[in-house]
Each structure stands twice: as C-alpha cells, then as structure tokens.
C-alpha cells in the first residue's frame, strides 16, 4: 500500500471540501462519528452474544438418571395435582394474560 504524503493528503482534503462544502463538513463528520459509534456498539453486542452462546454450549449437558425414582400415584397423594389439573390451570392463566393484554391494547 502506497504511503500518502502531505501533498496527497492536502489534495484529498480539498476534494472533500469541494464535494461536501465547508458548511456541511462538520455535520458530515458528526454523522460519520455517530455511525462509527453505533457500528462499534452493535459489533460489541454481537460479540457478547456469541460469547454467551459458546459458554452455554460449553456447559456439560446433565446425563439422564440411570434409574427413575418410584413415583407415587396421584390418587395416593392428593396434594400433588394431576397433569390434567396443571394443564387446565395453565390454560386459565394463559386466557387471563391474553385478556389483560387485549385490554391494554384497547
């Protein structure tokens, strides 16, 4: 890559001033600086997300248990709700949340 001497830099500076005009040059430089800051910020955010993803992938996956503990039937333990009861409860909560969300949008 060729080295730029002072003469070449002056010529480039004059061309930039001619293209943008002396009045718009500070605004153009400010916009360029803001664009560079935004680009660096987004690049940093992407790198952090990639690091988080690699850390999450590097964590060992727990091995499934060799033998499951014996389960107690729902009828024997009335304090434990059945799958159907839990599903019904979740559906009711979901309906309440959707109704609340619809009220907020209206």
From TrEMBL:
One of its GO terms (biological process) is protein transport by the Tat complex. Residues 61-72 have a biased composition (Pro residues). The chain crosses the membrane at residues 6-22. Part of the twin-arginine translocation (Tat) system that transports large folded proteins containing a characteristic twin-arginine motif in their signal peptide across membranes. TatA could form the protein-conducting channel of the Tat system. The Tat system comprises two distinct complexes: a TatABC complex, containing multiple copies of TatA, TatB and TatC subunits, and a separate TatA complex, containing only TatA subunits. Substrates initially bind to the TatABC complex, which probably triggers association of the separate TatA complex to form the active translocon. NCBIfam families: PRK00575.1, tatAE. This is Sec-independent protein translocase protein TatA. It comes from Acrocarpospora corrugata.
């Amino acid at each position: 890559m060729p080295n730029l001497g002072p003469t070449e830099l002056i010529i480039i500076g004059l061309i930039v001033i001619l293209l943008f005009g002396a009045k718009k040059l500070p605004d153009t430089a400010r916009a360029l600086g803001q664009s560079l800051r935004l680009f660096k910020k987004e690049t940093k955010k992407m790198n952090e997300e990639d690091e988080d993803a690699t850390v999450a992938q590097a964590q060992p996956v727990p091995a499934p248990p060799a033998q499951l503990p014996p389960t107690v039937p729902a009828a024997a333990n009335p304090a434990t709700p059945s799958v159907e009861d839990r599903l019904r409860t979740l559906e009711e909560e979901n309906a309440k949340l959707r109704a609340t969300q619809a009220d907020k949008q209206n």
